[in-house]
Amino acid sequence: PIAGSMVLAAVLLKLGGYGIIRMTPTNISTPLIYPTIAMATWGIIMTGLTCLRKTDLKALIAYSSVGHMGLVASATLIQTPWSTSGAIILMVAHGLTSSMLFCLANMLYERTNTRMLITMRGMQKAMPLMTTYWLIASLTNLALPPTINLIGEIQIMTTLFNWSSLTIMMTAMGTVITAIYSLQMFMTSQQGHLTKDSKEVYPAQTRELLILILHALPILLLTLNSELIH
């Protein structure tokens, strides 16, 4: 259910990250950190590559969440104030972004009765206002400057690089792949010609726009003043 997906992405997944921060010992030995961070950063790339070939919109957004939480898991293991701060910022930002993407995906599903990306093309012509929210969600998902997502990712990537310069290859590649599949998701679902089954799609309703505004407004406010998180 879409409500479960939104709660999972926005709340429960962040409770897991908070649990990692609280339960990770401050004196964890280095031999344990290396393989764990290596798996987490490698998972960012693998989930990103999986998103590139996903045709199910909801599955694509779910795998994207896993990739972003790989950055959070890596940062929490280093246990520095800078990494912990970056992990908290990214968790809050991604909670809003991922929940918004799940909500948008469900709105398309209610109108097309399918989650396949190829059958959702051309939605900009049917629902131009909702395309604006798709653009906001997609750009924040790929951490466009100066969004709050970028601040969290930059802090985490900087901390990982200071800890080990080899991690920059994994995190940089993961960032590029995230940008590719986020833009691909937006272009595939919004651009192009409407399919025959999509020509009778009804426009966005007021309650749906209110839900989207309640996601987009905190993202904008936190982007203007990220100190609100602390």
Automatic annotation (TrEMBL):
Which family does the entry's similarity section mention?
Answer: Belongs to the complex I subunit 4 family.
Which regions span the lipid bilayer? 33-52, 59-82, 88-109, 130-148, 168-188, 209-229
Instruction: Please give the function described in this protein's UniProt entry.
Output: Core subunit of the mitochondrial membrane respiratory chain NADH dehydrogenase (Complex I) which catalyzes electron transfer from NADH through the respiratory chain, using ubiquinone as an electron acceptor. Essential for the catalytic activity and assembly of complex I.
Q: State the membrane topology.
A: Multi-pass membrane protein
Q: Which GO terms describe its cellular component?
A: mitochondrial membrane
- Where does the record place the NADH:quinone oxidoreductase/Mrp antiporter transmembrane domain? 1-178
Respond yes or no to whether keyword Phosphoprotein is given for this record. Answer: no
Provide the reaction this enzyme catalyses: a ubiquinone + NADH + 5 H(+)(in) = a ubiquinol + NAD(+) + 4 H(+)(out)
Q: Name one GO molecular function term.
A: NADH dehydrogenase (ubiquinone) activity
UniProt keywords (A-Z) are: Electron transport, Membrane, Mitochondrion, NAD, Respiratory chain, Translocase, Transmembrane, Transmembrane helix, Transport, Ubiquinone
One Gene Ontology biological process: electron transport coupled proton transport
Location in the cell: Mitochondrion membrane
Q: What does the record give as EC number?
A: 7.1.1.2
**Name of this protein:** NADH-ubiquinone oxidoreductase chain 4
